[in-house]
Amino acid sequence: MRIVSALASILLLAGCSFKGVPDPALSARDAEFMALVPEAEFDPHFARYQVSDPTHEPPGTIVVETRERQLYLVQADGKAIRYGVSVGDEAYGWTGTARVDRKAEWPAWNPPAEMIKRWPHVHAMQGGPMSPLGARALYLSDHGKDTLYRIHGTNEPEKIGQAVSSGCIRMRNIDVVDLYNRVPVGATVIVR
């Protein structure tokens, strides 16, 4: 009985810190394409939650904490929505400030020349469920110049929480749709 009581107390306290965020509405195309990318089991630590804002940045700012493998969208009420992400592996990670320059649904993937040089087997790909960019992409620029980095979905959801990309910030497709719906072009992105 004490164990049940202790567990109930822990769950109540956890409810004060974390609040689940409902999935966004999906178009028929989104639902069809996303069903073709198997959802992998992942650590619940990387699920989408509303939390107290740990970033101290202005509302509307996206903050990526690379060591935590978390992305925060700062809200106006002292809260943030936290999403689990994959980040650049040690050789390709980056930090800095950028802006969302444009947004795209099911974008085509055009790997940069440096990536093709490292991995000759990669090639451009039309947007869709097998594209490495997944359901959505937020294209990042620095003073109007494309950084070549993106916040995007993935066709490898099992890698969320790892440092495996070539510098881009990867999210589960359902999470990147949620972020895409909340963030305007021009939003500030800080990668720490």
Describe the protein's topology:
Blueprint: H1 2-17, E1 18-20, H2 28-35, E2 49-52, E3 62-65, E4 70-74, E5 79-84, E6 87-88, E7 96-105, H3 113-118, E8 136-142, E9 145-152, E10 163-165, E11 169-170, H4 173-182, E12 188-191
Parallel strand pairs: 3-12, 6-10, 9-11
Antiparallel strand pairs: 1-2, 2-5, 3-4, 4-5, 7-8, 7-12, 8-9
Overall CATH class = Mainly Beta
- CATH architecture classification name: Beta Barrel
The averaged pLDDT comes out at 87
Number of strands: 12
Strands across the major sheet, in which order?
A: 1-2-5-4-3-12-7-8-9-11
Shape, principal axes of CA atoms: globular
Work out the strand percent: 25-35%
Specify the helix fraction band: 10-25%
Our measurement of the CA-to-CA distance between the termini, rounded to an integer number of angstroms, reads 45 Å
* Total domain units: 1
CATH superfamily: L,D-transpeptidase catalytic domain-like
Number of continuous helical runs: 4
Question: Uncertain runs with pLDDT below 50, 5 residues or more?
Answer: 1-16
Structural class: alpha+beta
Which series of helices and strands comes N to C? HEHEEEEEEHEEEEHE
Largest sheet: 10 strands, mixed
